[in-house]
Amino acid sequence: MAKGWNEAEDGFLLTFADAVGAERVATHDLSKPAGAGTKRLAHLIETGAAAFYAQQQFSRCEYMLRAGLHRKGSEAEDFTEEARDMWKERFDRWSNQPAPAMDAAMKKDAHHG
What string of DSSP letters covers the chain? Predict the structure, then answer.
């Protein structure tokens, strides 16, 4: 049985899927089976998890920039204005995706209300 996904792997997928493709990230970098990257990315987008991750990364970049910490430390290149703008674009894109799980829950609540 294949190992499930963890938070670090999801972050890696969400960070690099646009650049090289979800399948390449999953199979080459994360040793996942064929098809897993596309399936996981779709799941993260549909559930809203991708949008929340992008929001978290955007906020981290904004904090580092405002605090002046983006020029210090080994992770400084991860917190540039370009990175902040990239995460903002991804949040905007991913947050506009439908969330079937939420829609189903709302329909279920409407029938019980």
Answer: ------HHHHHHHHHHHHHH-HHHIIIIIS-PPTTHHHHHHHHHHHHTHHHHHHHHHHHHHHHHHHHTGGGSSTTGGGGSHHHHHHHHHHHHHHHTS--HHHHHHHHHHHHH-
- Give the pLDDT confidence of 15-36 residue by residue, as tens digits: 999 999 999 999 999 999 999 9
- Tell whether pTM > 0.90: no
User: What is the rounded CA–CA span in Å between residue 51 and residue 45?
Assistant: 7
- Pull the structure tokens for residue 17: 């899927």
Q: With contact defined as beta carbons under 8 Å apart, do 41 and 94 qualify?
A: no
Any idea what DSSP says for residue 75?
T
